[in-house]
Amino acid sequence: MIILVEDDADQRLALGLALKAAGYSLREAADGREALALQRERPARILITDLFMPEADGLELLQAFHREFPDTKIVVVSGGGKRAKGDYLASAKLIGADATFRKPVEVETLLDTLRALTH
Amino acid sequence: VKLRWQLFWLAAGALAPVLALALGAAFLLVSQERETMEREALGRARSAMSAVDAVLRGHFTALSALAASKRLESGDIRGFHEEAKRVLASNSNWLNVGLATSRGSRLMDAAMAFGGEESLTGDLVSYELAVRRNRDVVGNVDSGAVIREPAVRIHVPVAYGGSIRYVLTVPLKPESFVPVLRAQRLPEDWVIALVDRNRNFIARIPPMPAGQPASESFRAHMGRAPEGWFRGRTVEGFRTYTPYVTSDLSGWVLGIAVPASTVEAAAWRSAGIMAVALIAALSVAFWIAWLVSKRIARPVAALAAATDEMGRGGEVEFHDPGSIEEILKLHDALRRAHGAIREREERFRVMADAAPVMVWMSGTDKLCTWFNKAWLDFVGRPMERELGNGWTENVHPHDFERCLQIYSSAFDARQPFSMEYRLRRHDGEYRWLRDDGIPRFEAKGTFAGYIGACMDITERRRAEEALREAEERTRSVVDHVVDGIITIDESGAIQTFNPAAERIFGYVAAEVIGQNVKMLMPDPYRREHDGYIANYVRSGQPKIIGIGREVEGLRKDGSTFPLDLAVSVFHLGPRRYFTGVVRDITERKQAEIALREANRAKDEFLAMLSHELRNPLAALTSSAHVLKVVPPSSADAVKARGVVERQTKHMTSLVSDLLDINRVTLGKLSLQRERFNAAETLFAVIDVWRATGRLESHMVSPSLEPVWVEGDRVRIEQIASNLLDNAIKFTPAGKKITVSLRREDREAVLRVADEGIGVAPEECSRIFDLFVQGNFSPRAGGGLGIGLALVKRLAELHGGSAAAASEGQGRGMTFTVRLPAVDQPTVQAKTPSVDVASRRSILIVEDNDDARQMLQAILSLDGHQVCAARDGKSGLGLAAETWPDLALIDIALPDMDGYEVARRLRTLNGDRRIDLIAISAFGQARDQRRAYEVGFDAYLVKPVVPERLKQVIAGLR
After folding, report:
1. In DSSP terms, which residues pair with B99 in a beta bridge?
2. Cα torsion A7, A8, A13, A14: sign
3. Do the bridges between strand B915-920 and strand B865-869 make them parallel or antiparallel, or are there none, so unpaired?
4. Omega into B416 within 30° of 0, i.e. cis?
């Protein structure tokens, strides 16, 4: 079970299709708040999230997830900061992300990571 | 006055009293002599008179004897007559003897016969006197009745018994007195005269008739005194001195007239002697004076001549000074003075000759009289040639007039002068001289000419000139440099303040000169400045000197500003000065801020670009994976293809915008103008957007009036798309976006108004700046921040404008684009559009498989006959088989370039028409131009936008 958080509809759609094609069951959210709601409703094993989304900052979401659902694996896929300040992926790792990727990530690589995380 | 005359008058003066004494003595002598003569003459007169009285007494005695006659006494008159006759006869000098009674009756006259009694005649006065006084009386010269010739009568009264009875009268001959006079033996020119009481001559030598009146002067002086003398004239008219005596007996006067010449001769003689003596004395005096003066004057004149010569500076000879002590002293003094003058002159000459200056002297006639050696050496000419006006020959012709004028006018005013002129040196070079002349005056203030000194100031002038030039250069630099230059002294007082400093600080120099430089500084610099200077002066440790520093300045208007300050120190004598070079760096600061801002914007842009490119790539990557793993016809594949299509389009637009903004920025974007209805174009854009679902989350309401414009249709679409994109990005879902187009005057006005987040009004203008975006929103909706910049520039390229307006954050935004409107064309041009019906045979030559397949798909879907090749050679082969009438050729092919393919196709087709479209990743104008040159009909930049491709194909038909 994966919760995919991505504000861009096309990206969400495409990655979602890819993950579904790989056999994952998937719930999608456009922002952090929605994702948390979904998680609380029914916790997923894996959270794949973009870092910058509307409503809640990706890092805040990470913290909330990490605190609330420490067992959930977190994979961050980021397009990079808009303001070129700092290394958000490094920050994400510190906060508790299990894997981080810079967009665009090869789906195969992502699937390998997911497999590794769920084993 | 000459000395000899002085001496002469001296001697004459000494002689004068002696002469006066002598003159007095002579006068005394003459008068004594005259008195002596008078006395002598008077004595003689007295003795003569005595002799006359004696004669008269003799006559009286004789008569008295007769009177004693008895006959008479007895009255015997007759007898007495006889007696008387005898007596008469014995006295030859008696003329008669008369007898009369006391009563005057004539009794007898001896000279006549006796008889008769007659009255008396003749001198009755004396007769009566004799009777009355009863004494003997002498009468005056008279002529009687008896004796008719002149005679003097003597009367003797005859008394008897005391009574007079008779009077005896005897007339005497006047000549009877002549012998008495003659007996005096007087010199012949003298006159002696006996005069009666009536002043008539009795007797005279030389003779005069008796009874004749005496001279006027005689008559005038007689009677004043019994005796005396007078000066007068004789009857003959001779001038005489006459002493006279009066007789007591007879009352007669006897005068002896001495000729005046005889009396005065002595006086004249004395006077003559005196005159001679005087002349002699004066001559002697003059001679002595001459002698003495000669002894004094000659040596004095010689000394005077020597002194004159001394004055002229010539050779002086001292002659024998004689023996006078004073002159000897003068001589010696002059000799010493001469020696001293010679020495002094020599000293002056040596000094003047040794002096480095050129010295000259002139006389009262303006002519030069002397030049020193330095002058003569300078001009290389002898003294004779320089004297007078000779020196002016070497004066530079240009300076000559001025020079002479200064010299003459100063000379006439007896004023010092100073002039500069060029004088030819001995080597022919003209050198600048400074010539200072002053008038010379002798001890008593007499003007004696001029003396002047000249110096060669050529080098100094050059140095001054160079200095002036250097100063001028420096001043020019200081005055025109853009940096403010301020000099202060150790106290901080401003010494100089250049124009740039005036501009920078807003003060004029006069306001700040002398003021403390602190006035140009705000705190804390103002507070600390004195301490800085004091510290430097004390320790010599520079804090700012030699080091540029950024500080703050204070303008006159109180505003502060950043400035660069560089301070250097320099010394003038013992004083230290500081020069501060200040530069107002307000603009630089602003530029730096702007640059930082631009840099930040650029960095953000790059981050943004990266982000914006990663996002579609992410979607594309995922889609590619999906397409790979799902069946192509499955629903997921369709969705994935949809993602690919959208994201490709998105990326294309991103890259296009980037390329476009670059071209616009560089001015290389060319518009393909046509006249069209902008409303139709906007409808088409909105339709496409609607069709692609991009407007689904907002309420977009177009309100478009037909307005015709002349422009590049594609660019107008771009403007509309970018504005729409922007509005969607910054407008929350569900809000309204209004797109309107209307004609206002000569303009087509496009407005895109949203109800989005808006911006602060003051940010509205910045919103069009390149790379600016997203700052205004916590949720930047993506994009590169160049869309609006492109809108503005494209609008401007069309001769229009773009503006943004907002009432503030959260209150929406309205963008207005104004383009020049044109009239609707009379025959409406057919809007190029893809006409599926008009099929074409198309060849695609593209090595990139994706691109080739995409193109093939797009064109095939439109119903065209399409064949494709992956390189030039196979492309040409296909063309030979299918004879296409349109070819899309990639410029960058593996075997040959697109240009070559195009050329060969043209050759292959010959007269057959074939349209060629170039496809290139290069969008530069250069590439396009080359393509057109080779024969391409159109040029498309990768990635090819299907709509655009369709338009181009349609346009080629």
Report:
1. B108, B168
2. negative
3. unpaired
4. no
Which residue is closest to B778 within chain A, CA to CA? A54
HSE-CB of B372 using CA atoms within 13 angstroms: 22
- Residue B520 is encoded by which pair of tokens? 């140009």
Q: Is the pLDDT of residue B436 over 90?
A: yes
* One-letter-per-residue 3-state SS of B886-909: EEEEECCCCCCCHHHHHHHHHHHH
Distances (CA, A) of A35 to A15, B153, B339, B923: 16, 223, 135, 44
DSSP, collapsed to helix, strand or coil, labels residue B99 as strand
- In the block, tokens 């046509």 appear at B674
Residues of A in Cβ contact (< 8 Å) with B625? 18, 21, 106-108
d(CA B417, CA B883): 111
* Cis amide bond preceding B524, omega within 30: yes
Q: Where are the alpha helices (DSSP H) in B414-449?
A: none
- Residues 6 or more apart in contact with residue B268 via CB below 8 angstroms: none
- Name the helix (H) or strand (E) containing A115: helix A107-118
Cβ(B426)–Cβ(B379) under 8 Å? Answer: yes
B488 vs B528: which has the higher pLDDT = B488
**Cβ–Cβ below 8 Å for B621 and A80:** no
Does the structure show a pLDDT above 60 at B774?
no
What's the CA dihedral at B237, B242, B246, B252 to 10 degrees? -20
Q: Which residues pair with B429 in a beta bridge?
A: none
Tens of pLDDT, residues A46-68: 999 887 665 556 777 788 888 88
Q: Decide: B512 and B554 in contact? Cβ < 8 Å.
A: no
**Buried/exposed B872-906: b ≥16 CB within 10 Å, e otherwise:** bbebbebbeeeebbbbbbbbebeebbbbbbbebbb
DSSP A86: S
E strand residue ranges, B490-627: 494-497, 549-554, 560-572, 575-584
Q: What is the 3-state secondary structure (H, E, C) of B859-882?
A: HHHCCCEEEEECCHHHHHHHHHHH
pLDDT(A27) > 90? yes
Q: Is B626's CB within 8 Å of A18's CB?
A: yes
Whether B650 shows a pLDDT value over 60: the answer reads yes
pLDDT at B765 over 80: no
B293-321 pLDDT, tens digit each = 888 878 888 888 888 887 776 777 777 77
Q: Are B904 and B848 in contact (CB under 8 A)?
A: no
Least confident of B89-93, B260-264, B267-271, B628-632: B267-271
Q: What is the number of residues in chain A?
A: 119
Which chain A residues have a beta carbon less than 8 Å from that of B611? 79-82
Q: What are phi and psi of B897, to 5 degrees?
A: -80, 165
Check: CB of residue B804 under 8 Å from CB of residue B794. Answer: no
Average pLDDT of the residues in A105-113? 91
Query: B122: pLDDT confidence band, cut at 50, 70 and 90?
Result: low
Residue B220, pLDDT above cutoff 60 = yes
pLDDT over 50 (residue B48) = yes
Separation of alpha carbons B456 and B433, rounded Å: 5
Q: Is B922 helix (H, G, I), strand (E, B) or coil?
A: coil
Q: Are B432 and B420 in contact (CB under 8 A)?
A: yes
What was the pLDDT predicted at B781? 46
Q: What is the DSSP letter of B172?
A: E
Q: What is the pTM of this model?
A: 0.40
CA distance A73 to chain B (A): 21
For B618, which of A11, A82, A83 is closest by C-beta distance? A11
Q: Give the closest of B614, B616, B647 to A80, CB-based.
A: B614
Instruction: Give residue B883's pLDDT.
Output: 85
Among the listed residues B729, B885, B890, B726, the one whose alpha carbon sits nearest the alpha carbon of residue B817: B726
> Would the CB atoms of B621 and A106 count as touching at under 8 Å?
yes
B118 confidence band (pLDDT: 50, 70, 90): low
CB contact under 8 A, B643 and A10: yes
